[in-house]
Amino acid sequence: MTDYFVFSGVILQEHNLKENDKLIKFYTKERGQIDILVQGARKLKSKLNPIISSRFSVLRLTLVQGQSFYRLIDGQVEKNFKRINQDYQKILLAEGVLKKLGALVSFQRGDFKILLLITKYLKFLEKEARPYSLLLSLAFLIKALAFVGYCPSIKNEKLSLSKKLDTQIFFDLDQGIFIEKQNFRFPRDKADSFFKLNYRVFYILQTALYQELEQLKEYNFAPQDILKAWKAINKFLKWQVSF
């Protein structure tokens, strides 16, 4: 007797397999990230391709267990954030952060908080204006890092008014800590493991971690500082996870 499994979740990544098949990485709250084989998905008359073609959606999939992967036999769309597909920049951001999330959770158990975070991220990415997209994506990444235990040490405290906003901070990527020292000299053999930033960028990272996604649009950060914060957290992620 065949055992059927029904999971709700989001596609993090997909790959072409053989001539007509696809392999998708699917995040579920029950099992975490799982691999699903979609046989014949690239055929013109495929009955399964319309199910998984809703790229930025919450899907409810019916699966059977194969030898190496689950195999998709049916499914439906529960929530569709299809307007993301109308903006190329949002497509690139969404695809990028979901792929990075896949690297973070590849060995993690399922967590409803992560699936909720993905859903909220796609919801706000769809409806908010483009300038807000990078900050939203930064917040998604840093919160995901926190959920799986990789988050850098960022204290939730207000910056002292006596501190100069142009004071330099060094982000130690090895230890995930921020070092504030004047004339700080790091070992030459570890130069690549330090990322220099300032208090404006640190404050963006702090805000992205502790504020809810829906609150971020209240902040008027400079685009160049958001980009610097984005580069810092992506370098930390790559350093820690080596994806």
Overview of this structure, please?
It is a single chain. The chain is α+β, with helices and mostly antiparallel strands and 243 residues long. The protein folds into two domains: 4-147, OB fold (Dihydrolipoamide Acetyltransferase, E2P) (Beta Barrel), CATH 2.40.50.140; 168-241, no CATH class. The chain contains six helices and eight strands. The strands form two sheets. It has a five-stranded mixed beta barrel with strand order 1-2-3-5-4. A three-stranded antiparallel beta sheet has the order 7-6-8. Helix 3 (112-127) runs antiparallel to helix 4, helix 4 runs parallel beside helix 6 and helix 5 packs across helix 6. The mean pLDDT is 88.
Overall CATH architecture of the largest domain:
Beta Barrel
CA distance, first residue to last residue: 39 Å
Secondary-structure element sequence? Answer: EEEHEEHHHEEEHH
Low-confidence stretches: none
Oligomeric composition of the shown chains: single chain
Number of beta-strand segments: 8
Q: Tell me the strand order in the biggest sheet.
A: 1-2-3-5-4
Percent of residues in helices: 25-40%
Give Rg in angstroms: 20 Å
The CATH superfamily of the largest domain is Nucleic acid-binding proteins
CATH class of the largest domain: Mainly Beta
Helix count, per DSSP? Answer: 6
How many discrete domains? 2
